[in-house]
Design brief:
Blueprint lengths: L6 E5 L4 H12 L3 E6 L4 H4 L6 E5 L5 H9 L6 E4 L15 H29 L2 E6 L12 H21 L4 E8 L5 H6 L11 H12 L10 E4 L4
Parallel strand pairs: 1-2, 1-4, 2-3, 4-5, 5-6, 6-7
Amino acid sequence: MTLENKTVAVSGANGNLGRAVVREALAQGANLVLLDIVFGEDLRELPADRASLHELNMFDEQATRECFEQLQPIDVLCNAAGGFAMGTAVHETGEDDWTRMFDINVRTLLNGVRAAVPGMLARGQGRIINIGAAGAVTGNALLAPYIAAKSTVMRITESMAAELKDRGINVNCVMPSVIDTPPNREAMPEADYSEWVTPDQLASVICFLATDAASGIHGALLPVKNRA
């Protein structure tokens, strides 16, 4: 199964994971809707008949709704917008740190699904793939805002799947180990990178969940990790 003739919207398309999803989805024949605040020149050079770029701040619910109203019907929404940050002890963590983690990981997702799901319901079909985290299954020191945000993503995924599985819409979530990106290596220089998943590995799993081959999968929280 491929994504031939599917329209795939990718939030956070300019990020490391978003770019990997764009590459894999294009290779599988998808038409792409790229959503982000800014875009690199490489993305701007993608074929106009295969990829449309939309500069969008997905913290803004109204702007997100208005953007989606102007788009062609969306078959797949990949909520790749998100982020990771090491933090401090819970009692030392300020409101801004909590807000930032929930904004980039949860608020963007909620605004995306609020905008995309009505159209999917009208057509009786759709795929939604969210990004959780294997490390958010349990708590851990100095990571509470990130873990809480990703745990919320996973519970939202399960709830949406229960609500939408009988209406033609699949909602699933991948749970990567730490994604092997330059910012994450900088944040954790002593880590064992062999256990991290590459953006390309994760994109392959995401795109599988977007295909018709995954039509029987609902509410899955799929761990994805790598060992060298």
